[in-house]
From TrEMBL:
This is Metalloprotease. The lineage of its organism: Bacteria, Bacillati, Actinomycetota, Actinomycetes, Kitasatosporales. Residues 1-39 form the signal peptide. Keywords: Plasmid, Signal.
């Protein structure tokens, strides 16, 4: 978007999976109770919460620091019962950080003794297998709690924070919730109703590389949003790029042949295909966040209201994005869900095609709808 490059990346990426290796310090060994079977084992839980600090581009160019819980992230409990075995993942059911406060609670009942040699909690910047944030090497960002040793009763770990250098990854991850919650798919947990098996959803990968100038690209070949530098400071930017993925999934893996789109601006003419796909991403971000603008990573907003700097017509993404938002909010009952359903059943290359197809999704194209478009200099 804007000053950032935003084009489809075709180069092949090598994603090497690697986990965080923890070196376990020698721990106190726990003396086993003789005839351990007679000792009633009790459940041991580690509780706490994970919050992250972030710079908020949505709050203005000074980007003040704010704090928020990490919501909906995968939680694992790791550890070992005896001093000699190797640590392993202990939980068998999926656990997530709490949506309200980033809280976690992970429990395990020792099998042979009354205590665990060591235990710790791992939170990943991934939610189920629906979206995740990886580093430049393709490893998912994780936070590991301090290792607890000789754990014979439940412990509270308090409110914790990820490494300061990882905060932007957690901000991007948490922002992913906002789009997933509003994806408008009544058929499955997947991003698109074209995918109906909850175990086979296409996952969105956001790859964030800190040591690069601010930039954003969606790579459809790998379902990957690339974010560099301070790009995650802007939730509009994270959501805009993620919405390219969403539209790609709504179209079932198809995407329009987009022209004249290597550089494009909200208020300037590009092409019908560029304006349509970029406007969908712009308006998705604004719809999800409940506003009427795009905010770049520098904290500078631009409104979708047609203004003096704007070019005219449906090759301008701001004109199309403003029209989409106005239709959803003022004609379509305050929701984009029927538009989402329309995109889940038709492959659409331009806004004109979309508008023409609206009646098939029981959406109007009457005088009121056309007047909304005229307010954005689009005359159909
Ligand atoms: Zn874009």
């Amino acid at each position: 978007m804007h000053q950032a490059k935003d084009r489809f990346l075709l180069k092949r990426l090598v994603l090497a999976g690697c986990g965080v290796a923890l070196t376990a310090a020698a721990a106190l060994s726990i003396s086993l109770l003789s005839g351990g079977a007679s000792a009633a084992s009790e459940k041991i839980c580690l509780t706490g919460s994970l919050h992250f600090d972030y710079r908020s581009a949505e709050s203005g160019p000074e980007k003040p620091w704010q704090t928020r819980p990490v919501r909906n992230a995968n939680v694992e409990l790791w550890g070992r019962e005896g001093a000699l075995g190797s640590a392993r993942k202990l939980n068998t059911q999926a656990l997530f950080t709490d949506v309200a406060n980033g809280g976690f609670k992970a429990c395990y009942t020792p099998e042979r003794s009354r205590a665990m040699d060591m235990m710790w909690v791992r939170v990943s910047a991934e939610s189920s297998r629906l979206w995740k944030v990886t580093n430049g090497k393709g490893a998912t960002f994780t936070w590991n709690s301090p290792i607890q040793t000789a754990v014979s009763a439940s412990r509270s770990l308090g409110t914790r924070r990820p490494r300061s250098g990882d905060m932007r990854a957690w901000h991007a991850f948490d922002t992913g919730n906002e789009l997933w919650w509003k994806r408008g798919n009544p058929k499955s947990n997947c991003w698109s109703a074209r995918e109906t098996d909850d175990n086979e959803c296409t996952e969105l990968t956001m790859q964030w590389v800190s040591s690069a100038p601010s930039g954003t690209v969606y790579d459809p070949q790998h379902n990957t949003v690339h974010l560099t530098g301070d790009a995650p400071d802007s939730e509009h930017t994270v959501l805009h790029e993620s919405a390219h993925f969403l539209q790609h999934r709504l179209f079932g893996g198809w995407f329009p042949q987009v022209t004249r789109c290597i550089r494009h601006w909200v208020d300037k003419a590009s092409s019908e295909t560029c304006a349509w796909t970029e406007a969908f991403a712009d308006s998705a971000a604004a719809y999800v966040l409940g506003d009427y603008r795009y905010v770049g990573p520098n904290g500078i907003p631009i409104s979708f209201a047609h203004g003096p700097t704007y070019d005219d017509g449906d090759t301008v993404q701001g004109n199309v994005g403003g029209s989409l938002l106005d239709l959803w909010r003022n004609v379509d009952g305050g929701t984009w869900n029927r538009t989402i359903a329309l995109l889940s059943t038709h492959n659409i290359s331009t806004f004109r095609e979309y508008f023409t197809l609206r009646p098939t999704a029981h959406l109007v194209t009457d005088d009121k709808a056309r007047q909304i478009l005229r307010n954005h200099t689009i005359n159909y």
